[in-house]
Amino acid sequence: MKQALIIIDMQEAFFLDKQNYLFEAEKVVENINTLITSARNSEVPIIFIQHTDSNEDDDFAFGKPGWDLYHGLLRQPEDQVIQKTTWDAFYQTELAQYLQEQQIEQLIFAGAQTEFCLDTTIRNAYSRGYHQNVLVEGAHSTLDSHVLNAQQIIKHHESVWNNRFVKIQPRSFFNTK
């Protein structure tokens, strides 16, 4: 089954200001980099999704320091970068066409934010016929909300997604690739 690794919105904005740091950010980056290395070793295409906000004052606006993909990721020039303007990486982007052209059948997801862009993209991927998708524990994150802390948000979404929209794999998944 031909796979692609999709890394959503791992951008500098989540690392520039303490109040916007992702939960367990360093571990998440380490885990994503392990996934990237594994993908490269297996010749799995790597796709970085980059949120681009239309509000020029937003941290994710084109050209702002927070807009750049996080410098600590093991990104290479051959990796695909797709910009999006909504929570859904498929909406009005070239993602679906790229996956079809590459004959991708399984998506491996990582990134941020769990309850926003990751959730929306995971669900849309399933609706588009990608039913064998994977998410590795510790390879996605979010921020605390006014209702739940980041750890609760992650745990809740993983319980909703698992065996429905994705198959949640343990962190040991990194060592089996």
In a nutshell, what does this entry contain?
This protein has helices spanning 13-16, 25-41, 95-101, 114-127, 150-161; strands spanning 3-8, 46-51, 80-84, 106-112, 134-141, 167-169.
How is this structure best described in words?
With 177 residues, the chain is of the alpha/beta class. It has a single domain, classed as 3-Layer(aba) Sandwich (Rossmann fold), CATH 3.40.50.850. Helix content is 31%, strand content 20%. It has 5 helices and 6 strands. It has helices at residues 13-16, 25-41, 95-101, 114-127, 150-161; strands at residues 3-8, 46-51, 80-84, 106-112, 134-141, 167-169. Strands 3-2-1-4-5-6 form a 6-stranded parallel β-sheet, sandwiched between helices. Strand 4 (106-112), helix 4 and strand 5 form a beta-alpha-beta unit. Helix 4 runs parallel beside helix 5. The mean pLDDT is 95.
Structural features:
six-stranded parallel beta sheet; alpha/beta; globular; 5 helices; 177 residues; Rossmann fold
Task: Map the helices and strands.
Elements: E1 3-8, H1 13-16, H2 25-41, E2 46-51, E3 80-84, H3 95-101, E4 106-112, H4 114-127, E5 134-141, H5 150-161, E6 167-169
Helix pairs in contact: 4-5
Low-confidence region ranges? none
| Share of residues in helices | 25-40%
Q: Write the element-wise H/E pattern from the N-terminal end onward.
A: EHHEEHEHEHE
Gap between N and C termini, in Å?
A: 14 Å
User: What is the chains' assembly state?
Assistant: single chain
Alpha-beta content class: alpha/beta
The average pLDDT score comes to 95
Choose one word for the global shape: globular
What's the alpha carbon Rg, rounded to whole Å?
15 Å
CATH architecture: 3-Layer(aba) Sandwich
Beta-strand percentage? Answer: 15-25%
Total count of strands = 6
Numbering strands along the chain, what is their spatial order in the largest sheet?
A: 3-2-1-4-5-6
* Tally of separate helices: 5
CATH class: Alpha Beta
Question: Sheet bearing the most strands, described?
Answer: 6 strands, parallel
What is the CATH homologous superfamily assignment? Isochorismatase-like
CATH topology name, in short, is Rossmann fold
Protein name: Cysteine hydrolase family protein
GO molecular function: hydrolase activity
Keywords: Hydrolase
InterPro entries: Isochorismatase-like_dom, Isochorismatase-like_hydrls, Isochorismatase-like_sf
